[in-house]
């Protein structure tokens, strides 16, 4: 009987300790970021750290990291006023090492760099959230005889694409910038969410979005490489060469038109890209005028001022011929977007001037800010409703 009572007592004691531990665990859960109407609190448990700071994309260029303080529970924290509505990234710096927020599962990826993200809801950012009705995104492998490899691209199909087997859709070819890859517009640009929301609101025509890898020396993003195995890199080519541009016309468009229900003519094609992808957008239309009815370069301009030793360099006469080729082939929309402190702004202004000089109708959409995803997401949200109408 004593053994039974002792066992029961121990059992109840252990159960009490377990319950207490569960309570403590629940109390110890870190909430970060904690977003209220007016402020955001960031927290990080780093018991042995000596200094912790916060850096985020809402800060002005050159602004110092924000110092965090450790409380009695050994949790580092800081509270800041809410920035303007938008999507933001941030990282912690722990004794000199940059880390993501372990309490926040939402991240984006810029090349090989991962950052934690959060959204401040508002009019500007309302399309960056998941819509109630969503399309699908697929990773597609296609043959590229031009580059000499099987390569990967991402393809967005709008909600309803799989239900109506007779409907045909226009296509936006959306190109990333330098350092990016086939997933950049999905991870950083929120392209799927933006189109889902625009289509659901009736503001944009249902369309496909094709997002290739614009690095002619890659077959796919390096995040899929496994250490110890052969990397997904081809023999090094000049990234600024015309291989990728030619592949877009000769390999990618034919694949999309033969594997998807597309409007396979100029009226059903749009092209846009940011920075390097903006250069690819212009270069594609310079070399192959007449393929796209909607041309929307972002953060680029008339003359590649930092590419004078590459095959992209050309003189005024050559540029005039390129623009004349686009004008003669015809287009419905030429939309150029750039921030007023973007390093490419002067070149964008020059392109605006030349288009006007050559009698080529266009829109020059100028925003604040610089060479950043804050602008490029906004540009997609702005020009997508203009396409295919």
Feature tags:
six-stranded antiparallel sheet; eight-stranded mixed sheet; alpha/beta; Rossmann fold; 8 helices; Immunoglobulin-like; 389 residues
Task: Explain how this protein is built.
This protein folds into two domains: 29-122, Immunoglobulins (Immunoglobulin-like, Sandwich); 129-386, Alpha/Beta hydrolase fold, catalytic domain (Rossmann fold, 3-Layer(aba) Sandwich). By secondary structure, it is an alpha/beta fold. The strands form three sheets. It has an eight-stranded mixed beta sheet, sandwiched between helices. Strands 3, 4, 7, 8, 9 and 10 form a six-stranded antiparallel beta sheet that branches. The radius of gyration is 25 Å and the shape is globular. The protein starts with a helix and ends in a 6-residue tail after the last helix. A hairpin with a 4-residue loop joins strand 11 (136-144) and strand 12 (149-157). The longest helix is centred in the N-terminal third of the chain and has 26 residues, at 2-27. 28% of the residues lie in helices and 26% in strands. The chain has helices spanning 2-27, 184-187, 191-200, 243-259, 276-287, 316-329, 345-357, 373-383; strands spanning 34-35, 39-45, 52-56, 66-67, 69-70, 75-81, 86-94, 97-99, 107-110, 113-120, 136-144, 149-157, 171-175, 208-212, 269-274, 294-298, 333-339, 363-367. It has eight helices and 18 strands.
Question: Which secondary structure elements does this structure contain, and how are they paired or packed?
Answer:
Elements: H1 2-27, E1 34-35, E2 39-45, E3 52-56, E4 66-67, E5 69-70, E6 75-81, E7 86-94, E8 97-99, E9 107-110, E10 113-120, E11 136-144, E12 149-157, E13 171-175, H2 184-187, H3 191-200, E14 208-212, H4 243-259, E15 269-274, H5 276-287, E16 294-298, H6 316-329, E17 333-339, H7 345-357, E18 363-367, H8 373-383
Parallel strand pairs: 13-14, 13-15, 15-16, 16-17, 17-18
Antiparallel strand pairs: 1-2, 2-6, 3-4, 3-7, 5-6, 7-8, 7-10, 9-10, 11-12, 12-14
Helix pairs in contact: 4-5
